[in-house]
Amino acid sequence: MKPAWSILPEEWKGELAARGLRPFRAEQVLHSLYRDMISGWDEATTLPKELREDMKREFPLTEATVLDRARSEDGTEKLLVGFADGASVETVLIPATGRFTQCISTQAGCAMRCAFCASGAKGLLRSLSADEIVAQHMICRRIGQITNLVVMGMGEPFANYDETMRALKLINAGKGPNLGARHITISTCGIVPGIERLATEGIQFELSVSLHAPNDELRSKIMPVNSRWPVGELMAACAAYTRKTKRAITFEYTLVSGFNDSREAAEELAALVKRVPLAKVNLIPLSPVDHRPDLKRPHEAQMLAFLDVLMKNGVQTMLRRSRGSDASAACGQLRLRSIAVS
Ligand code: SAH
Fold this sequence. Notes:
Order of helices and strands: HHHEEEEEEHEHEHEHHEHEHE
Bound molecules: S-adenosyl-L-homocysteine
Shape: elongated
Oligomer: single chain
Distance between the termini: 52 Å
């Protein structure tokens, strides 16, 4: 038995043959899964009835149920998706002109414990398997045509590297959901071996790195991961990544009032990211979280001044607007519109 959504398109012939099923059915199976977007094998009416029974037994469709659905006024929608063992994750749909972005989760909970992040507040429950990540995507595909995928939901993708990468390769596959690699963004809190591994994959996924502070002293206060891979090591890995792949890196920087939003911090950040070729910066206004009421979002003028310093230093910077806050979907990573691009 192997979950159908864990199998890459090119593997289907071999998987069918290995179970005494006809390999030529692979095309029909893929059509049912990713064009017809079946949610159960009984819906695969192009397959003979007997084969449908075999498929149920050998290649089950991962159980993933929408437990809750909340829509915010700006059209952002948050889905709570539950799996067979009771674990659940959030996935968010963000409509914008010309695009429909899904924010996907790779773990139930998170072990990274970044101070300002709600997902890590209760620690890690467990990592998701590739088919569970794909199941989240297929649920959303049935709602609408997804044009972009950001791996910015619950969890740290590089703490679940193999399953995340398998899921993303499947979602990217031409005979799968066929979502372009450049429309898929992986976001990491800065797990250096993950960045190094991604550089060897030869796939053009976009990479975002959550930096949030311009030096070790500040970063260690809000991101425990910094003690393992401090800023210098992280930036060196990022520079090696961009040199090797010729792909840009976006540094995420969540602005926290009175903590990392000063002019000096902006100058320090500009100098730091300029060490990395093709670096961009995304400034995110903090979405306040219940467990840290002391962390506050800066005033608009403060954020614009911060932005100004970066732009004057020639750093390509964007200030994001968080969306979905009335559906409690915002953790700041959701893009509404860029109010400034250099
Ligand atoms: N673990 C990955 C991906 C998940 S978080 C990572 O750390 O990148 C996606 C982004 O949202 C990260 O940049 C994260 O730091 C940011 N984020 C989390 N909670 C936030 C909050 N309360 N306000 C603003 N941004 C937040």
